[in-house]
Amino acid sequence: MLKGIPAILSPDLLKRLCEMGHSDRLVIADGNFPAESLGKNAHVVRLDGHGVQEILQAVLQVMPLDQYVEQPVSLMAKVPGDNAPTPIWDVVKAEVKKVDERGEKVVGFLERFKFYEEAAQAYLIITSSEKALYANVLLQKGVV
């Protein structure tokens, strides 16, 4: 164990976060996300038993968001016609506001298949047991 490091961040996950450079991207994926098939060129780290909010809080404690882009955080937009509730979006925005002075305006949305395209280019995909729909979060790393 280390002081000041959230216990949820496993040694493997810490290693992968440390390897990331400025502008590299990571996905925090909900339980329905096709992480293994999309992440063929990414490192996939499983955090079973944990939700998106808990993982996001921990990651944002050790990784800054990119200050050189307007929206270093992207959520998967709803498929047109899907009326699924998305309270997780407010949770993500609240967590981002805690660490980025620009507030929730740094959070954008990507159409589902565009999100998949971007996720396929990510350096790291963190899987979760999140049951909320549309709870996938794409983060772009900033400068430490």
UniProtKB/TrEMBL annotation:
Catalysed reaction equations from the record: beta-D-ribopyranose = beta-D-ribofuranose; alpha-L-fucose = beta-L-fucose
The UniProt record lists the keyword Iron-sulfur: no
Transmembrane stretches, start-end: none
InterPro entries the record matches: RbsD-like_sf, RbsD/FucU_mutarotase, RbsD_FucU
Coiled-coil ranges per UniProt: none
Keyword Isomerase: yes
Keywords attached to this entry: Isomerase
PANTHER family: FUCOSE MUTAROTASE
Protein known as: RbsD/FucU domain-containing protein
